[in-house]
Write a structure and sequence with these properties.
Blueprint: H1 3-10, H2 16-21, H3 38-48, H4 68-75, E1 83-85, E2 103-110, E3 114-120, E4 130-132, E5 152-153, E6 156-157, E7 169-177, H5 178-182, E8 192-193, H6 195-205, E9 214-218, H7 221-228, E10 239-240, H8 242-251, E11 255-258, H9 275-284, E12 288-290, H10 295-304, E13 308-313, E14 323-325, E15 329-331
Parallel strand pairs: 7-9, 8-10, 9-11, 11-12
Antiparallel strand pairs: 1-15, 2-3, 4-12, 4-14, 5-6, 7-13, 13-15
Length: about 325
């Protein structure tokens, strides 16, 4: 079944003007923007929902798709033995895109023997490479799998916390480099990545996303920052359209990594902030890695002429936590 038939069969209602024009590829700019009403978004949420798919008590979501067989296949991606970090150095400088920088208080020569650190970081947001657990966000009073928001309090999350991922993530990673696809060094801040563009990427590369894959979407956010300086990314950011989530759901992707927040900002959905986070984390049960460095990975993928690799990631085992700082590794 092709993507259009899939979306139609699911009853997903994309705006008619977007669907009518989206098949027209525009070099350098991709496809025209989509726009959804809240009612259309709510219908999409229901159709993409994985609630109950792995049982009423499930707390792993799409990571259930990373089976032992998929891990063995992922290990076969290692050919050159080249490792690439997907994290950035922890930013200690205050800026418009990092208003609460990382702080390291040094305790020197403790007991005349040791040097020690006390770290302070508010890692969710736009400044640090981090992992989002399924307790990170909710929609209309519910977390993934229907858990009520009352399961989290000031002392932490009783369900869906970061400690659930103690086995880490070990699967095939696939880099979808949208600036490369468009022939650009980085996307403009108003770029929206649609399902049609993901189709175009598959056609151009001959690589297909399959069940259990981790999908890494490069927008070139850090290349843009290096070229033009920091900006208020919370108000203007390239990112995914809702139709891209239907595309990923169809293929049973297990995990996503972004060099920004996955979401296009401002959101292309009326009255819904961060709709991609909501569709991924709450509806599909897909944890995310945000604000990662995909520039080194993009260069290596072009050098080796392949966008696939072994992805490994292990968040800290924080009981009650909603995420963690993280250093994902891509190994070719």
């Amino acid at each position: 079944m092709d993507r259009r038939s899939y979306i139609k069969g699911m009853g997903v209602l994309l705006a008619s003007h977007a669907m009518a024009s989206a098949s027209k590829w525009q070099p350098g700019t991709g496809y025209p923007r989509e726009h959804l009403t809240k009612a259309q978004f709510d219908q999409m949420f229901k159709q993409l929902s994985n609630w109950g798919r792995w049982g009423k008590d499930d707390q792993l979501g799409t990571l259930n798709l990373i089976t032992p067989a998929r891990r063995r296949q992922a290990a076969a991606q290692v050919r050159e033995g080249i490792c690439i970090s997907l994290a950035r150095d922890l930013n200690t400088e205050r800026s418009v895109d990092n208003p609460d920088p990382f702080r390291d208080v040094m305790n020197l020569r403790v007991d005349d023997k040791f040097n020690m650190d006390t770290y302070t970081v508010n890692f969710h947001g736009f400044g640090f490479s981090h992992f989002d657990a399924l307790s990170h966000t909710y929609y209309e009073g519910r977390f993934y799998n229907g858990y009520p928001v009352t399961e989290i309090s000031s002392i932490g999350a009783k369900v869906l916390d970061t400690a659930k991922y103690y086995e880490g993530i070990f699967t095939r990673g696939v880099l979808i480099d949208i600036p490369w696809l468009r022939g650009l060094p980085y996307l403009p801040t108003d770029a929206l990545i649609t399902a049609h563009e993901l189709d175009h990427w598959e056609e151009k590369t001959g690589v297909h996303i399959v069940s259990g894959d981790a999908v890494l979407v490069r927008t070139g956010r850090w290349a843009l920052r290096d070229a033009k300086g920091p900006w208020d990314i919370a108000k203007a950011s390239a990112g995914l359209a809702p139709s891209a989530m239907a595309w990923l759901h169809q293929r049973d992707a297990a995990f996503m990594v972004s060099d920004a927040a996955h979401d296009a900002l401002p959101a292309p959905v009326e009255l819904v902030d961060f709709p991609i986070h909501i569709l991924a984390i709450v509806a599909m049960g897909m944890p995310l890695a945000d604000q990662c460095n995909l520039e080194d990975l993009g260069r290596e993928a072009q050098k080796l002429k392949r966008p696939t690799f072994l992805l490994t990631l292990a968040p800290e085992r924080i009981k009650g936590g909603t995420g963690s700082l993280v250093n994902p590794i891509a190994t070719f």
